[in-house]
User: What shape does this take?
Amino acid sequence: MPLEPPDMYCAEQIFVPPTFPGILKQYTKAAIRTQPYDLLRWSAAYFRALANGERPLVKERLEYPQITTESGLSPGFLKVLIKQIGKEVSVKYCKLTEIWEGLCLDGEKLKEMLQLSGCQDENQVDWLVFIAVAAGHLNENLQQTMNMLCELLTEEPEGGCASIPMHVFRNLYQLLAEMDCPNIPGIGPRVPEDTKSAALTYLEEMASTHSGFILPRHTIHILCPPLY
Assistant: This one.
């Protein structure tokens, strides 16, 4: 009995949905910029977000050279988290976990950061505190961490002076300075009271001349007392 001939198609018989090339192009660009650790898991989160009319988990630009940390977190991924959640006072634990997993970051490191942030339950997370702790995992000392927080939390356009309100800077600095984390260089051991007081006195004075805002350049000025 002769076998049935295989189906043959010509170009005219193949229908390509008109939106397919654009979707594929944007996806390819997003994957190259984001460089996810698990392409399949990230792709599932990417298309799920698009299907739900939400912002996909995409970095603004390619980080090069690619930054490697135990958690998988990088400044680019931290910016994605902030873009997704905003700069709210708190965030639901389940939402943060969902985005973290969508970025294919390490779940155990998330638990450690949440514990260090003082998260007492799985309902709400103090978002700014978590950002500060996460930034501490990406820097070599407390001063670098505070400058990164200015860049992450500023309302200035990219390339601007990265100013933030002094009260926000003060609260986050005092929080991190009180922690005793010698194994996390970006936070470090507890800062002595006299060191902390001298730094804040100088920075408060600088902020008073800038409408109550602090700038990263203030912390690296030759006259600024050390932050740690």
In short: The longest helix spans residues 193-208. Residues 139-228 form one domain. The chain has ten helices and four strands. Residues 36 and 163 are 30 Å apart (CA to CA).
